[in-house]
Design goal:
about 140 residues; alpha/beta; Rossmann fold; 4 helices; globular; NAD(P)-bd_dom_sf
């Protein structure tokens, strides 16, 4: 059982380096069209901004706005369009997290405060479901 944790996963393949005599490592593959991206904490300032930026950068992504505030989440999903929807999630509820991670290609974890937690419940749920292979954690400076 392996999970991949990336601090920064580019959504586009970076342009090829000018000229190099050394063999360059393979570039990360571009997420498939219609990939499902779950933004945890999507109803907050950082998560909402992240979902909006992802929507503009890759309009083909299906963006799931995960959070506790249904009104804010549905409002943002409406602004982002048909490819977006709100999913009610409490990151403290393991069963709810695991259900939300089904069929998700990328998890962007902006829900806080998670910096002081001994274990990352989101990572544990991703490993348990064996579905989400890419996790991006964003946090503000403390």
């Amino acid at each position: 059982m392996a999970a991949m944790v990336r601090a920064c996963m580019p959504l586009r393949t970076p342009p090829a380096a000018a000229s190099s005599t050394a063999t360059a490592p393979a570039a990360p593959s571009k997420p498939r069209s219609n990939a499902r991206v779950l933004v945890l904490g999507g109803t907050g300032r950082v998560g909402g901004s992240t979902a909006t930026a992802l929507s503009k950068l890759r309009p083909d992504l299906n963006i799931l706005i995960g959070g506790r505030n249904r009104e804010k989440g549905e409002s943002l999903a409406s602004e982002l369009g048909e490819q977006s929807e709100f999913v009610k999630i409490d990151t403290g509820n393991a069963a709810m997290l695991e259900k939300a991670l089904e069929d998700v290609d990328l998890v962007v974890h902006t829900a806080g405060p998670f910096q002081r937690e001994a274990e990352c419940a989101v990572l544990r749920a991703a490993i348990s479901t064996k579905v989400a292979k890419n996790i991006l954690s964003l946090r503000t400076a403390a």
